[in-house]
């Protein structure tokens, strides 16, 4: 469904760009842009501008509707994940060494035996 809407949205975007670019300025009529007379155009003297303006309006309406629909579908939180059925693993408890209390001022802390993770203590 959403793939169809995205494709339709892109096609309407391109059509809207093309239709807006086909429109003429305020002072020129449809035939003046192509070098011909206005009465000899395909849609008649004023039929081209009305047709193009109606086409622009229709493309703009479809563009807005597809934009709103795609925004609604992307904000919907009902999507499922392939990880939703799995249980979370229990965290393993790490064994930590007991913390040593700092020695009071003026006394030296007792020397610790050198282990694989401890540096040797110099006296």
Q: Strand count, sense and closure of the main sheet?
A: none
Task: Kindly report the average pLDDT value.
Answer: 75
Number of E-state strands = 0
The parts where pLDDT drops under 50 for at least 5 residues are none
Radius of gyration: 37 Å
Shape: elongated
Helix content: 40-55%
Strand content: under 5%
Give the count of helical stretches: 2
Written overview of the protein:
It is a single chain. With 123 residues, this protein is mainly alpha-helical. The protein has a domain at 1-16 and 50-75. 41% of the residues lie in helices and 0% in strands. The chain is built from two helices and no strands. It has helices at residues 2-22, 47-75. Helix 1 (2-22) packs antiparallel against helix 2.
Give the topology, please.
Layout: H1 2-22, H2 47-75
Features:
elongated; mainly alpha; 123 residues
Short description:
This protein is mainly alpha-helical and 123 residues long. It is built from two helices and no strands.
